[in-house]
Amino acid sequence: MSSALDSFLDKWRERWPEWAFVERFVDEADRERSVAWFALLQEFDDILNASGDTTPQDAKLAWWGEELRSWEVQRSRHPLGRVLEPVRAPWAQLADALPSLIDARDPVADAAQARKGLAQYAAAAAAVEAAMFGSKPSPSAAEALTTQMLALRVQEQAASVPQAFSNEMEWDKALQAAWPSRVAGPRPRRVYAVLARGRQQARIRGGEYQPSPAGLLWRSWWAARG
Predict the structure, then answer these.
(1) What pTM was computed for the model?
(2) Which of 95, 157, 164, 188 could form a disulfide with 65 if both were Cys (CB 3.0 to 4.6 A apart)?
(3) What is the DSSP letter of 137?
C-alpha cells in the first residue's frame, strides 16, 4: 500500500477511531475497501460543508467529477482509486450528482427541502455502495445516507439548520427521530451508521462522546446482523 493511500485512509480513521473496535463485523475482504469508500465520501462531505469563499472546494469537486468518470473505464489518478476503481459500479452517475452538493449548501426552509437537496447525490452514492458491497440499491438506503450526511452537516456547519427549526438541538432531534437504530444498506454502512448515530445522540444529551467498547461492540454486532 502506498504512503499516499495510507494518508487518506488514516485521515478517515483519525476522525472515526471507534471503527477500530467494530470493523471486525465487516467481512475481512471488505475492510480496506470500506475505509477507502468512507474516506471518499468524507471528501465530499467536507466540500459540502465548506463556508466562506468555496471556489477552491468547487474546483476540487469538478476535479473529482472527472476522476470518477475515469473510474468508470478503470483508470484512476487518485490513490483511493487503487482500491475503489476496480469495482464495477455506477461511477459516472455519482460524478453527475456531485454538482448538486454546491446547491445543497444554500439555506433551506424545512427538513423536506434539506433532504431534497441531497437526494440526487445520496441516490447515486447508495447505488455505488450497493454495487461495491453486493447489496441491492433501495430508496431507504439512500434515505439513511441522507440522514447521516445531514447529521454530520449540522455538526460541522451550524448554519445548515433549516429555518423551520429554532436551533441545532431541534434539528438534531428531528434527524434522530427519522434515523432508525438499524439502517438499510450493506453491512459496512449499517456499522458506520451506528457510530454516526451514537455521536449525534451524545450531542442531543449534551455530554461528551465517550462510547464504551462493550457498548460499541454490542450495537455494531446487532446492526451487522441485518
Answers:
(1) 0.95
(2) 95
(3) -
